[in-house]
Amino acid sequence: MSDPKTAFAQALAELRGRVPDRSDEAVARRASAVALPSGRRVPVNARRLGEWVAGQSVPRDFDAVLAVAMATGGVTGPAALRELWRAARRGSGRGGPEQREPRATRVVVGRPPSDAAALRDRPVLARAVDDALRAEDVRQVLLTGPGGVGKSQLATAVFHRARADVLVWVGARTRQSVLTGYARAWRALVGAEAGADDEAQADLFLDWLRTTTTPWLVVLDDVDDLAEPAGLWPAGDAGRSLVTTRRRDAALLRPDVRVVPVGMFDPDEAAAYLSARLSVDPRHSPAELVALADALGCFPLALSQAAAFLIDTGIGVRGYLDLLADRRQRVADLFPPSSPADEHDDTVAGTVRLAVERASTLAANALDVLGLVAVLSPDGVPEAVLLDGGRNLLALRALHRLNLVTHVGRVEAHALVQRAVRDLVPDPAAVAAAAADALEREWASADPDTAAALHRNAEVLRAVAGEHLWDGGMHPVLLRLARHLAAIGRPAAARDVAVALLARAVEPRDVVVLRTEVARSTGDLGDTTTALADLTGVRALAERDLGRGDLATLWAREHHARFLMETGRIEAALAEFTDLIADGGLPAAHPLVVEAEDNRALCLGLAGDVDGARDAATALVTVLRTELGPRHRQTLRALVGLGRWIGETGDAPAAVATYREAVEGLEAVVGRGAHDTFIARHNLAYWRALAGDLDTAIAEFDDAAADAERALGERHPTTLTYRGNLAFWRGVAGDPRAVEHLAALRRVVEDVFGPDHPRVLRTRQQRADLLHRAGRRAEAVDELRAVLVEMTRVQGENHPRTREAADLLDGWTGR
């Protein structure tokens, strides 16, 4: 018959077995929350629960046993369970200290951290660890992640719910602490006396692990320097080891090791943690806690310290969020040692500093590279920006190995880690300048996807270090911001950025280029009259301060000439473009020359010389094919212009063939969703329609409109243009709903651009055209007359669109 202590342990194990899917931590928390028949609540520790179930110890208070019974489903005979408990207590030497009880079937050595306040279960990670520990081909489980994400707490939970006969927890920061832990384990196993040589006893313990058939689990917590546990890794078929570390070096990654990455809380976990931890203070609303979790990037250590800081100081969440938003505040002051985290012996700033110091032992320039990361986007820095031709590869990999960054194709870092690093950088101005130089270097030859990533990084750099990018004038990368937005069809955003930069510009060149960008964006938004007036002043300023042949002046002149053309002054614009090309002295493939040549061809065509326009566009494409190659983005863009004039000369099928070549090339070079590709796809569908292939054209408009909405958004100008032409050509094909679709679209376009915008007027003209085709002629004539009045007022009577509407009206009225 079993002894009373074993009988009680078996009874308790049966109760515990009712909820096998629950961890000891979960059962202990549930038991602690149970109100007993007496009304009393008894705290139950997860580690103690594991010891009771294993027969290692007996609880001092039966109410703790009753709480566990009630938490696992209740008990019909508490009196019998009480008698088992009493017998077990008598057998264990009632009233004596538990550590003097005879050793039962288990050996537990070492003291894991206590459960953190408001501990999160993290069931997905817990299952991953448990599955790994049960896998036949796994001998070691590696919990790796940045400092302060809860690796030790996760390992503690594993330790408490483990059913191995020998459990050993070892602090592994130093070699001596590992030797001491192993020696203690050996003494506990064999009853040896303390005082013997730790290293010899550690060797005996490691040898026992290799040869025993007794199930064991050894936890090595917080391995920092891989040289410290060298030669001391546990091994043996009967057991498993669990390692927590911020490292992810090759030395740790072996075939029999299962890696479980431990990262930040998800948003729900973070908000739930704060809600539980701050339940003692009802001032904080759930919405505020969600905002705080988001501001801290769901970083567990930061959440823990922030909660302690709020409790200790009495500050509210909103006040603390204001402190976080103030970039003058140092991380060390936002998360001070005076408000420590639960069971974590360091602060956010200290954790980052320690990791940086360790990385610097692997690569001397680790902090230099991390400084660049710290002022760029946390969501992803193109690796070429940081590698600098491969010279920084070792440093970048050292940062990856220490979990300060994640380098897999691109480089990511937590925003709070970045902020802590910025506090460590000795010369912020030099770091900002170096980051800006690296972005500018890569942007010069970037594809559209890379350019989009560089734009995000430049925006972050401007926000966190903008004041350092104006020494001696505006850094060129800042101008890239507005130009990139303009190039992808976001003129309003481009104007806003240029206006913000202009507010602090003082150097004449900076003023000229930024005023040029503001005016260009204003014109692209439809206010061509204001754009032309502004550019007239900018051009005069540039010629006076910089000279007629300066590149900034030439760009101002190019945009000035373009808006002369846009406002209907075609002959004057043609002369300006011709003079500009002659004055610049730039290579034939220079972007300014290409744009001017393309616009010169456009002027020829708008002036009625469509053959001259076609010849000029053909000459430009020929030059670019020679200088840049047939698949260069500039060449393909010029091909888009050529397609129009081929069509305007009367050869619509040849125009379609030209646009097909441009679309195929752009899809291959810059991607199907790039802005240039969308323009080419639109023009291809348009000329298919004019060539009479309405079914194919409508299908292409429909397909491209859906792509544009996904890539750019439903209210983006390109998307709206597609939707307008899709509705129009459907109406031409006989769809009676097209008129109403254009009416609905007009309301959206007016909401986006305003009622006088040329896009609105174009939509109204198309609707009038469909009304006329549907036989509603009087209504169509009235609408087009009203549109023509607005076009003349907004664009001028000589504007191509105004003339087109006037010719259409004349055709309807027979004038």
Automatic annotation (TrEMBL):
Please name the Pfam families in this protein's record: NB-ARC, TPR_12
| Residue span(s) of domain NB-ARC | 128-270
Q: What is this protein called?
A: NB-ARC domain-containing protein
Q: Which organism is it from?
A: Saccharothrix yanglingensis
